[in-house]
Amino acid sequence: MAKVKSKWVCVECGYESAGYLGKCPECLSWGSITEEIQSAAKPCTRDDFKPELLHEITLDDQIRIPTGIGEFDRILGGGLVQGSLTLLAGEPGIGKSTILLQLCQCARSLYVSAEESANQIKLRAERLKINSDNLYIYPQTCMENIKAQIEELKPQIVVIDSIQAIYSQTVSSSAGSVSQIRECCNILMNIAKTKNITVLVIGHITKDGAIAGPKVLEHMVDTVISFEGDKYKSYRMLRSMKNRFGATHEVGIFEMGVNGLTQVNNPNELFLNARSNAQVPGSAIIVSNEGTRPLLVEIQALVGTTPYPTPRRVANGVDTARVHQILAVLEKRIGLNLSKQDVYVNVTGGIDVTEPCADLGIALAVATCARDVVVDSQTVILGEIGLSGEIHPVSNIEKRLNEAVCAGFKKAIIPHGNEVTGPKIEVIKVKRLMDAISACLNKGENV
Q: I need a surface site. Which of 49, 63, 192, 356 has the fewest CB within 10 A?
């Protein structure tokens, strides 16, 4: 009898070890190492596909399937691509199953539920007012049975909810293990490519926010979509982290209601509607690019004397290291003493701003709060700050300013290196951080 070989694999990151370890040396998680039985290698089967010349390959006119959900189509690049494999990940209760159930109304679909019964899905469908004659519900966890039903029904769209609960009989380990996830995803990818079926897979995330399972899962799929937001609040954000058929980092914004997820057609109202009519120091408006979409975002800062030996630096929605760098520039180049001041920086609306275009907005929010000066509420601020206090140009300046004009803003403080010709807005160009602060005090030169 052949000796059974096993290996120890981390279910969080896929790290492999010859023996048991209490703590994974790769992702540093405790108790995540599980034993898996190594199965024999499968023989390679011969297929009927032959290589084709590039100019002989023809594209189908119906290569994309519109979902009927504009924000979802935006992040996909225009709709679901036939023969694609898409991974949707997010926290429990965020709305992953809800949006995919709504999406299944656009075409002949098979919804495979490995975590809920058919009755539970029917209750959700009634709440969402979904009544489609082309939607099949299949509670199943065995990959071989799922494959057989796909071959029989021949749907255009297949939804797997979720990949961590599906298992294949060819792998001896339990569902959710690294080997099972890899094998099931490989079978689904083969179904999508050979049968030209669009497959959408729901994935769990770890406590750190990363997609659970091996990293190869993200490499195998065509599109990775992250579902972000606080499940205790109504707004949700879909962000494409990887997209082989469109732009990455596109953002779709939804509102969760009684009847499911609805699109937010004007997200600027979402991020700016909470602004107070009474102008107070420490507030600045920037135009952040999320994929190809410009969004108007308010940055707030609070500066106050600290009762502690070491002042606090708290950043919410922006990189803390970036805030520390901007504070250092303010102290060295402007002479603003913050050594005994607590500094809090917050981005309203729950969005994370990662691009350096927000530097000047953060700096002016902190400086105006420290000096008790109010930035004009009809002014947008754009610019990246260098370590010597210079203001670097930003990309897509005219697109950002056009969005500001549509939102009713009258003035913009921008880097001197940016050329502006189109937008009808009063522009103040600045070369250094001191010039931007002077412009807030109405001492800048209008150009």
A: 49
